[in-house]
Amino acid sequence: MKLSQIYSILGLEFSGDDIEIVSLSSLALAQRAQMSYCDSPKNTKYLADCKAGAVLVSKDMVDIVKSRAVVVENPHLAFAILSKHFSKPLIREFKPSNIDESVTIMPNAYIGSGVTIGKNSLIMPGAYIGDNVTIGSDCIIHPNVTIYADSVIGNECIINANSVIGSDGFGYAHTKTGEHIKIYHNGWVILEDCVEIGACTTIDRGVFEPTIVRKYSKIDNLVQIGHNCEIGYGSILVSQVGLAGSTKLGRNVIMGGQSGTAGHLSIGDFAKIAGRGAVSKSIEGSKEYGGYPLMELKEWFKTQARFLREFGNKNSKKDQ
């Protein structure tokens, strides 16, 4: 839409060049026909090289963006409002699909527009394959799996029953009076080759870019992977792991049951997180961690032993 229309949606008075804005994008990737936003001083480092035709900023950042600035009180909230207007349609124009003749599609599976499915793949009953989804060769999509539009599934992948690939991420901007304004996610999900997804696991699509699960990763039942996460090559996530948005796992990371992360952090290659470990900041690879606050596992065991010696003895005396 025209930039003047965007000003109107945000209740702003327009002046200047009325350029066409085709989509929203991140500061790092935005091009001339796109709009981005900056809502934090820590992200101002990206503004100097940002190519976006327009950038939502607060008034204290105007001097950095200059003529491209769209000045608003709350850039994050303004972005959320606009994300609805630039969201992808749930129902797309029809395009023919490309499904290999060796593919087996069982009754009551839904195949959307423009879908590609490779040789010898199996789509079981009740599966939903959205528009423009790509599924490689020798994949098994179990009953009632939902794969949202634009998702990319590699070769030899297994997705177990009731899993959801590519749903909207959990992201909201907040008004002064407490309303939560939805951020529509226009990214997608990529599962590389030989990935297995357990039953009832959910993987959210990214805001602008993909959520990625690298080759040979194995994900158990009931795991939640937030938007824009990246799961490294050969990683293993055990049941009930939860990853907040933009978590980056290196290769061969192992996370035990019910462990989790805060968002926007990274875990190094070959790290191991014990069950119920809570990762609240970025950590090095090739080490074992546990507990909360997170520490190296051997230190966690020592801390637990000291705790039991101190408080266990007191409780025993009380019981006597």
Automatic annotation (TrEMBL):
Repeat found in the keyword field: yes
Organism of derivation: Campylobacter devanensis
Family according to the record: Belongs to the transferase hexapeptide repeat family. LpxD subfamily.
Keywords from the UniProt entry: Acyltransferase, Lipid A biosynthesis, Lipid biosynthesis, Lipid metabolism, Repeat, Transferase
UniProt KW Lipid biosynthesis keyword: yes
EC number: 2.3.1.191
Gene Ontology CC: membrane
Assembly, per entry: Homotrimer.
InterPro entries: Hexapep (IPR001451), LpxD (IPR007691), Trimer_LpxA-like_sf (IPR011004), UDP_GlcNAc_AcTrfase_non-rep (IPR020573)
A Pfam family the protein falls into: LpxD
GO terms under biological process: lipid A biosynthetic process
HAMAP family, per the entry: LpxD
Positions of the catalytic residues: H227 (proton acceptor)
UniProt protein name: UDP-3-O-acylglucosamine N-acyltransferase
Chemical reaction(s) catalysed: a UDP-3-O-[(3R)-3-hydroxyacyl]-alpha-D-glucosamine + a (3R)-hydroxyacyl-[ACP] = a UDP-2-N,3-O-bis[(3R)-3-hydroxyacyl]-alpha-D-glucosamine + holo-[ACP] + H(+)
Annotated function: Catalyzes the N-acylation of UDP-3-O-acylglucosamine using 3-hydroxyacyl-ACP as the acyl donor. Is involved in the biosynthesis of lipid A, a phosphorylated glycolipid that anchors the lipopolysaccharide to the outer membrane of the cell.
Pathway where this protein functions: Bacterial outer membrane biogenesis; LPS lipid A biosynthesis
GO molecular function: N-acyltransferase activity; UDP-3-O-[(3R)-3-hydroxyacyl]-glucosamine N-acyltransferase activity
Catalytic class of the enzyme: transferase
Secretion signal span: none
Encoding gene per record: lpxD
